[in-house]
């Protein structure tokens, strides 16, 4: 099968997740602040532009009023409303009823003095002498939009610069806040590395020496004790490998190769049989030959070992473990204590354990998930409390 | 049957027309008669009211107030015009008739729809 591997990163996963979540919220917050500032700036610029037009609009209104005065005095002879090239106008009586208009924009707000609406600027002037009954004179000129383009350019340019500064400051602050967490994690990593390094030599020595002992020649009672030591050593060895993977997993370069799963599964079942025997657990196997997968051998071994180890750990005494290998999947089923539905979602969390009476660090399934995710392989849990658990690891067939 | 309906329709139409003439008569009889004699232009007086009161309701209200209680302060005429023509006497019309006459006056001289 062909599978892709995710990119390695120096940042710890939890730290990276926190960083992204924080930056996402921080960015939204920054955008809201910037939008608010842009809105204030836009309104200020608009007011400035309108102020700049005031003199001209006042002059236009004087011109119109003088024409209205003339028209009022000569209404019997002259009834043509004055029109101008530079501006448009409208007149309203004291009840805000329209007397006449040449405006482009229909909506007029007589309660304001100066405002812009749909690319037009309106200036409202109140008359003291109501020529032709006019109380409100509206002068309209077109807004060329030059100021708006200027404001847009400024808002985009300064907004982007400010946003980047905000983002940089946010990132720096977060790094500062996460420093204690990073230090703790580094300490934990160092501790695990040191511990595992110190464990390696004695565990290897015990296992090698037990293998060299010819148990047939031993007294049955001594042989039983040796088997117990063997089981304990293998358990320690398994924990050691998990810890090593957790501490160094991201930094170890994978050596992917085509793995014969029949051989690997048989080998690992054989390895765990001794541990399973301590609880009288029986292995039932149905392994198809010639099923291959392209993966790093050590990583696939960690996946199988952890699933088998869990199947033994959470099994009942004299229980069973059924291992099935078919094209595209491995299935490991046990008749153990099972997991409740609400706990299934948390099985892959680091340091999560579902039975405090059993040993372990709660690293196993987290390691399994991280390896499978790296290769795009899927895993599914089906479990019933007190009935058992079925774990299926499946991938696309070649 | 059809004839009866036609007669009713004709009578109603005539009734409306007569009512219209009666309305016009209130204005013509009670306002225009004197103003014509004195050559005091109704349009000019209207424009004076408009200059001071702007919209329909205040204009009508000011005219009615003046007609009910004519005095130097509420008159739309200039001082020299008052000296020349004198103040008019109090109206003898009822409130309803007065309102009708002023409505006709407003409709005749209002600015709305006249500007081009």
Question: What is this structure, in a nutshell?
Answer:
Chain A is of the alpha+beta class. The model of chain B has no long low-confidence stretch (mean pLDDT 80).
Write up this protein:
The complex is a heterodimer of chains A (398) and B (116). Chain A is α+β, with helices and mostly antiparallel strands and 398 residues long. Helices cover 52% and strands 18% of the residues of chain A. Chain A contains seven helices and twelve strands. In chain A, the strands form three sheets. Chain A has a five-stranded antiparallel sheet with strand order 2-1-5-4-3, covered by helices on one side. Chain A has a five-stranded mixed sheet with strand order 7-9-10-12-11, covered by helices on one side. The radius of gyration of chain A is 41 Å and the shape is rod-shaped. Mean pLDDT of chain A is 85; it is low at 1-10. Chain B is mainly alpha-helical and 116 residues long. Chain B has one domain. The chains are: A alpha+beta (398), B mainly alpha (116). Chain A binds chain B through residues 72-73, 75-76, 79-81, 93-95, 97, 99-100, 129-135, and chain B through 41, 43-44, 47, 50-59, 111-112, 114-116.
Which stretches of chain B are poorly predicted, pLDDT < 50 over at least 5 residues?
none
What's the tally of helices of chain B? Answer: 5
Largest sheet of chain B: none
H/E element string of chain B?
HHHHH
Radius of gyration of chain A: 41 Å
Summed over residues and divided by their number, the pLDDT of chain A gives a mean of 85
Give the biggest beta sheet of chain A. 5 strands, antiparallel
Low-pLDDT segments of chain A:
1-10
CATH H-tier superfamily of the domain at 254-394 in chain A = Histidine kinase-like ATPase, C-terminal domain
Which CATH class of the domain at 254-394 in chain A? Answer: Alpha Beta
Can you give the helix content of chain A as a percent range? Answer: 40-55%
Largest interface: A-B, 20 and 19 residues
From the N-terminal CA to the C-terminal CA of chain B, the straight-line distance is 50 Å
> Structural class per helix/strand content of chain B?
mainly alpha
The main sheet of chain A orders its strands as: 2-1-5-4-3
User: Please, how many helices of chain A?
Assistant: 7
- Please give the domain count of chain B: 1
Shape designation of chain A? rod-shaped
Strand portion of chain A, in percent? Answer: 15-25%
């Amino acid at each position: 099968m062909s599978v892709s591997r995710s990119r390695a990163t120096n940042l710890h996963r939890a730290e990276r997740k926190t960083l992204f979540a924080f930056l996402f919220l921080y960015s939204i917050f920054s955008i809201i602040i910037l939008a608010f500032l842009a809105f204030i700036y836009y309104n200020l610029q608009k007011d400035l532009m309108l102020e700049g037009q005031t003199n001209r609009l006042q002059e236009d209104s004087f011109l119109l009023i003088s024409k209205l005065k003339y028209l009022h005095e000569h209404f019997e002879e002259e009834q043509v409303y004055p029109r101008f090239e530079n501006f448009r106008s409208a007149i309203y009586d004291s009840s805000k009823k329209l007397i006449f208009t040449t405006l482009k924009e229909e909506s007029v707000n007589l309660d304001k003095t100066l405002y812009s609406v749909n690319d037009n600027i309106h200036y409202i002037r109140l008359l003291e002498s109501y020529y032709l009954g006019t109380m409100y004179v509206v002068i309209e000129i077109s807004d060329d939009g030059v100021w708006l383009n200027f404001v847009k350019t400024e808002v985009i340019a300064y907004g982007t610069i400010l946003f980047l500064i905000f983002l940089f400051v946010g990132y720096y602050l977060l790094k500062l806040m996460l420093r204690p967490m990073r230090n703790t994690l580094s300490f934990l990593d160092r501790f695990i590395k040191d511990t595992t390094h110190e464990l390696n030599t004695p565990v290897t020595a015990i296992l090698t020496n037990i293998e060299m002992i010819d148990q047939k020649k031993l007294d049955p009672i001594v042989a039983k004790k040796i088997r117990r030591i063997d089981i304990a050593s293998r358990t320690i060895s398994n924990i050691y490998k998990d810890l090593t993977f957790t501490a160094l997993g991201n930094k170890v370069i994978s050596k992917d190769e085509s793995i014969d799963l029949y051989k690997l599964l048989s080998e690992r079942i054989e390895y765990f049989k001794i541990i399973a025997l301590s609880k009288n657990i029986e292995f039932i196997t149905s392994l198809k030959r010639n099923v291959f997968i392209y993966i790093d051998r050590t990583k696939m071994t960690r996946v199988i070992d952890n699933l088998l180890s869990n199947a033994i750990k959470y099994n009942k005494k004299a229980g069973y473990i059924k291992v099935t290998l078919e094209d595209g999947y491995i299935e490991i089923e046990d008749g153990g204590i099972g997991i409740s539905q609400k706990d299934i979602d948390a099985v892959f969390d680091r340091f999560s354990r579902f039975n405090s009476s059993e040993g372990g660090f709660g690293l196993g399934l987290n390691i399994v998930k991280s390896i499978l995710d790296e290769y795009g392989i899927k895993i599914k849990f089906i479990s019933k409390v007190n009935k058992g658990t079925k774990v299926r690891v499946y991938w696309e067939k070649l | 049957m059809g004839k009866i309906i036609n007669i009713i329709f004709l009578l109603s139409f005539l009734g409306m027309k007569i009512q219209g003439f009666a309305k016009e008569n209130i204005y013509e009889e009670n306002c225009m008669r004197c103003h014509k004699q004195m050559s005091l232009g109704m349009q000019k007086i209207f424009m004076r009211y408009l200059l001071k009161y702007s919209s329909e309701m205040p204009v009508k209200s000011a005219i009615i107030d003046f007609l009910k209680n004519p005095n130097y302060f509420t008159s739309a005429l200039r001082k020299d015009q008052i000296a020349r023509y004198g103040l008019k006497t109090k109206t003898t019309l009822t409130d309803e008739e007065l309102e009708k006459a002023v409505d006709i006056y407003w409709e005749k001289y209002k600015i709305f729809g006249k500007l081009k």
